[in-house]
Amino acid sequence: MTLATPPLLGPARVPYALLGRAHGAARRLAERGAGEGARIAVDVPDPWDTLAWFLGADLLGAATLVVEPAWTPRERAAVLADALPHLVVTGTPDPAAHGISPAGDDDTFFYLPTTSGSGARPKVLIRTRGSWLRSFAALGRLPGPVLIPGPLSSSLFLFGALHALWCGHDLRLLPRWDPEAAAGAARDAATVHLVPAMLAALLDVLDRRPDLRAACALRTVVCGGAHLGAETRERFARLLPDAELVEYYGSAEHSLIAIRRGDDGLRPVPGVGLDIRDGLLWVNSPLAYGGRLRDGMLEPDGAGWSTVGDRVELDPSGCLLVRGRAGAVVSSGGRLVSAEEVEAVLRGVPGVADVLVTGTPHPALGAIVTAVVEVGAGTRPALRDLRAAVRTALEPGKRPRRWLATRALPRTPSGKPARAAIARQLRDGTLPAEPLR
Predict the structure, then answer these.
(1) Residue 22 CA from chain centroid, whole number
(2) For the segment 17-47, what is each residue's pLDDT rounded down to a tens digit?
(3) Residue 72 needs a FRET pair 20 to 30 A away by CA distance; which of 103, 105, 128, 140 works?
(4) What is the reported pTM?
């Protein structure tokens, strides 16, 4: 019997070694009682093992949760209590000489993504194959090989890896983010998936390492997860003039919502309905999730309009302007300041590895806009340059009044700053940061 391609990947060419291990994983899971409708938790450090178990579960029509190693014991226990997996698998699956027949259809649940974990407790969502197959098509075909420079426990990187396989491309997998390693791996990759902070760090390496920049083979950089500032886009165009920058806006709940290519703005994905109510974006999408799991029970999403609380506007040309999550807003002196708008400006200042903006208590204003700047191993950003950047780009009420520096911001598995954790550590006085002067 030939080795069938997992349904999630359609008719794509999958490397035979990975395909054999996926069928081997499916047989191992079936021997342990898993089948269509089962839930599997994968807890392995190697990304290729993760893919083999994941695709093996998809062959069976089972849904997979990829365990995040950085979860605290409390977070892990809470996630597993909500997901209630039938099996938790570890280790390396052996390849199978004989395949199994795929089960399920586009409405089959295949994935249990979790929210970023920047809040108090990650949520466990559930996705159908069809929702991601339509998401793959919305992003379109990209050149390969494809570099995935972060853990597959992040849905952003897992999506990038599975999209690459759906395109029929070879993968270059890094188990964790390292900008030097990513710049080296880019010598043998045509596409890379990143978040804005990672793109800024990669550009830093390429800027100071002309040898790596000359050897870089990237033709497409896919950037998601947060707003990308104009300064970073301009730097990208200077350092990688032959590469295309593809930005997308989405969420774990809704998948892709809007995509930006070239000099155009964020254009809604065809077929995705958008509605702005009191400044918040509501979405009705065939790419959306199927619901949430609580204590192993499915709470359907309602198959209609839903929101994750993002504040947006539409410009006169119909492009989407994302102002940030409603929870990422600082109320200072009666003015609502979008933290992500300020962060996008500051990320373009030389010496800023990344930045998070939040509010800290103030007796008269309620809160003041506070910037926590992550400084790299190289040049420390000058406070005068940071102030000059916000003075040029932002009106006075949006400019930070308190400036802190830290060597490393706490992060979510996808590499984004962990907003709730940082705000909590600022309140508790436990964030390792000092005044920036």
Answers:
(1) 25
(2) 999 999 999 999 999 999 999 999 999 999 9
(3) 128
(4) 0.82
